[in-house]
Specification:
This protein has 326 residues and is α/β, with parallel strands linked by helices. The chain folds into 2 domains: 17-184, NAD(P)-binding Rossmann-like Domain (Rossmann fold), CATH 3.40.50; 192-319, no CATH class. It contains 13 helices and 7 strands. It is elongated. Mean pLDDT is 89; it is low at 1-12, 14-18 and 308-326.
């Protein structure tokens, strides 16, 4: 009787020959991202061995997500680890890489991974000249610095940039962390990162402002009111794009928009500039996609073109402080 054929590997999984060997893992910069990624790699069979942390908060994160992993200096992390995660702020990354390379901390054959969305693999060139294997793996996820982040990595997209010869290794590491690799060209990294920041970072600001305004309007639980509404809006936007636009701007209700601006100037003047900017962009997109009728757009755009949105002039002292509510 013939033995059954070995099952074909799933498309989402790397072949056995493409999987990285079990690696010792180090983290330079125990912010919200690094410990979570290292903990995820540990679940995949790799072994975290060292982490660098400066602040009390980063030490607490390391202790929670990487218990029993020693906290050491960055150079020591590189000395102990086959795979090093450089999880520092974007602006600190180039200097860190140059410093590690200049001091001889980088070892030939060492996998050096940064998680910056802004940079591709080129920022690691000083380490690459010292023999390191450079990978840019950016998780498209917001992090809390707690164990919940490890769970959220399941299905998370990673922006991957690496030399062609390291592409399979980069993709395999992402898959082992539960993520989905998305290849981003080196020159496209800044645009890629700007797109994510526009959608995710600014969303947090908008939601926080909305909750503050609802609280001022007397709503006891703004989060409960907004949750279903924002969930539906996000789902519709992801499914339908601009076709999901709704509300007074998309309808051309200029009077309603003018009333909004007047109320915002009275109760929360710091929100007016953002409201007007988003309303103008919404109107432009609604016009371009045939949702806003041109005959209604003129009055609406007139309201949005006024610095005060049709209310009193910004210099009027009766309006209170402008753009700085404390």
């Amino acid at each position: 009787m013939n033995a059954p054929a070995a099952p074909e590997p799933r498309a989402s999984e790397p072949r056995a020959e493409d999987r990285p060997a079990r690696l010792t893992v180090g983290v330079v910069g125990a912010g919200r991202v690094g410990p979570a990624l290292a903990a995820s790699l540990r679940l995949a069979g790799h072994r975290p061995v060292a982490v660098s942390a400066v602040s009390d908060a980063s030490r607490r994160r390391a202790a929670e997500l990487l218990p029993d992993v020693p906290v050491v200096e960055p150079a020591r992390v590189l000395a102990l680890a086959d795979l090093v995660l450089l999880t520092v702020p974007d602006d600190a990354l180039p200097g860190l890489v140059e410093g590690l390379a200049d001091t001889g901390a980088v070892r030939p054959g060492q996998l050096l991974v940064h998680t910056s969305g802004r940079y591709g693999a080129r920022v690691l060139d000083p380490a690459r000249r010292a023999g390191a294997l450079p990978l840019a793996l950016h998780p498209a996820m917001t992090f809390t610095g707690t164990a919940v982040d490890v769970q959220r990595l399941a299905g998370c997209s990673f922006g991957v940039t690496a030399p062609e010869e390291l592409r399979l290794a980069a993709e395999a590491l992402v898959i082992e962390m539960g993520g989905e690799p998305e290849w981003i060209a080196e020159e496209a990294r800044p645009l890629y990162h700007a797109a994510l920041a526009l959608g995710a970072n600014h969303l947090v600001t908008l939601v926080a402002q909305s909750m503050e305004l609802l609280h001022k309007a007397g709503v006891a639980a703004p989060d409960r009111m907004l949750g279903p509404l924002l969930g539906a809006a996000l789902d519709n936007a992801l499914r339908s794009g601009d076709a999901a636009l709704t509300g007074p701007v998309a309808r051309g209700d200029a009077g309603t928009v003018a009333a909004h601006v007047a109320e915002l100037r009275k109760h929360a003047p710091a929100t007016v500039a953002g409201y007007l900017a988003m309303a103008r962009t919404t109107a432009d997109r609604a016009l371009a996609h045939g949702l806003l009728r041109p005959e209604l757009a003129e009055d609406l755009l007139g309201v949005l073109a006024e610095p005060s949105g049709g209310a009193a002039h910004p210099a009027d002292p009766a309006d209170g402080p402008q753009g700085d509510e404390r």
